Amino acid sequence: MKKITLSAAAIVTTSILVAAGASAHVSANPAVGVANVSQEITLQIGHGCGIPNVVPETNTDTSSLTVDIPAGVTSVRAVSSTDFPSLTVTKNGSGAVTSITWAKVPGTELAADTNFYKLTLRAKLPNLPFTKVYFKAHQVCKAPGKTAEWIGTPTENVGEEPAAEVAIDEAQVVPIDRLRRARLPKSKLGADSAYAASAEALHSRLRVFFSRSGPLRFLGHLDFLKNLPRLLRRAGIEVAYSRGFNPVPRLSLGPALALGIASDEDAFDVDVILPESARDMTGELGDDERTQLAAELLARLRGVMPEGLVTLETKLLRLDEPRLGQMIGAADFAVRLDPDAMDGLPERLATTMAFAELPMVRKKIDRRRSATSQGTPGVTIDVRKHLVSAELDAATSELRFRLRMEPTGTARPREVVLALLGIEAGEHVMRRVRLLARDGDGFATLR
Questions:
Q1: How far is Cα 123 from Cα 71, in angstroms, rounded to an integer?
Q2: pTM assigned to the model
Q3: N or C end of the chain: smaller count of CB under 10 Å?
């Protein structure tokens, strides 16, 4: 039975009403899950270790909850809680999660048992429809020695307070037509179009990280973009097409680079058609399967990449994750300088970085005018407002700087070098080190 320490007077007062208090046990929501599908399960803590609504002075706030993971429940991930910030995940020798403990920071417990708590985990239920799994819970409360054990099941600890139970239902087959109506806009392609099946097929989103160097740095942005579907086709990866009148591969590349600039870490997103895409779109694809599929696609791509193009990593994204263009907020660049011309550059860099503005005139090219006619006036940009940081690396004779990448445009690397050091540098001595995602007021790596 539930272990509670009560005074003699409390026992007399509650002898008739104890059944009412026992009903508010630790419960699972939803009470019915789906077999062989990853889903969120929320454990609801109705009260502390006293008997609610009966003897209020016996109730104390919950300080921690430990949940035992039932056998057969896999792909377990704990969800952080602001009320219980200390999280402990226990695993067995094979790496499977066996229990999760959420705990409050000592001293932050409430003075009274007034709150209703929810703690969440994500897990895949076993493929055993019409059975139940039981999450045994061990509750510790503020007062010393106050605990509650919710461990009773029909076959174990009979007579103890009931464990949180989840009934397993069979997986429902979702018709493809329903998925298309819910997730995909109506195609404008005719039934006889060669692209119709690809445009309307269920798909997954793949993010590919790569580097580009050597002669490939002199391949223009659009030409490089046109060749990516060919590489994917050589790797045996089917690409999904757009659903407009003029179908194109659903592929987006990172910000364009000027001809000649190499890239240490670039990325592109592409919608691909995989045998597992139907399960991906319905949220049934677990994290472990997602990682394994990404590794298989990475191996395929590495086998077909030309010299100078290296695939670094692949990620199979969830369809609700932000696209590449929505994430990128900055980029790091490196420019190789003449080692014999480094004298005085650190002082000049310190001076120019102290300026509030670094105006630069960007000349416009009007191709409608003849070669002998007068050029169009340029536009003045402020390089400083796009520049996050800059430094000189004496060991490698490089200027390294970080540029903001805004939808309205940014400064060009050539303009940054000229504004900071007064040097006309060619793109062939430049490389983009990495792309960065927005992270609050700062930036974080995409990988």
A1: 12
A2: 0.59
A3: N
pLDDT at 282: 81
Q: Three-state DSSP class for 420? A: helix
Q: What is the mean pLDDT of residues 132-136?
A: 95
**pLDDT for 297-349, tens place per residue?**
999 999 999 999 999 999 999 888 899 989 999 999 999 999 999 999 999 99
CB 421 within 8 A of CB 349: yes
| Local structure of residue 249 (DSSP, 8 states) | B
- Which of 424, 401, 425, 420 lies closest to 352, judged by CA? 420
Pairing type for strands 251-253 and 262-273 reads: antiparallel
CB-CB contact of 436 with 445 (8 Å): yes
Give 84's pLDDT tier (boundaries 50, 70, 90).
Answer: very high
Strands (E), 69-188: 74-78, 86-91, 97-103, 117-124, 132-135, 137-141, 147-152, 161-162, 164-169
Query: Cis (ω within 30 of 0) for the bond into 30?
Result: yes
- Kindly state the percentage of the chain with pLDDT values over 70: 84
Q: How far is CA 66 from CA 110, 163, 183, 370, in A?
A: 19, 12, 38, 78
Rg, C-alpha atoms of the chain? 30
Q: Which tokens sit at 295? A: 């590794």
C-beta atoms surrounding 121 within 10 Å: 21
> Picking from 145-149, 272-276, 384-388, which range would have the lowest pLDDT averaged per residue?
145-149
| CA-based nearest residue to 230, from 280, 164, 301 | 301
Eight-state DSSP code of residue 86: E
Give the whole-angstrom CA distance, residue 167 versus residue 129: 8
pLDDT at residue number 1: 42
Parallel, antiparallel, or unpaired: how do β-strands 204-212 and 309-317 relate? antiparallel
φ/ψ bin of 273: left (φ > 0), alpha (ψ from -120 to 50), beta (otherwise):
beta
**For the chain, which domains are there?**
8-169 (2.60.40.2230), 176-321 (3.30.70.580), 327-445 (no CATH)
Q: Which of 346, 326, 447, 332 is nearest to 394 (CA)?
A: 346
CB-based contact 299:404 (threshold 8 Å): no
Tokens representing residue 342 in the block: 């480094």
Token pair, residue 298, equals 């990475």
Return d(Cα 195, Cα 418) in angstroms, integer.
48
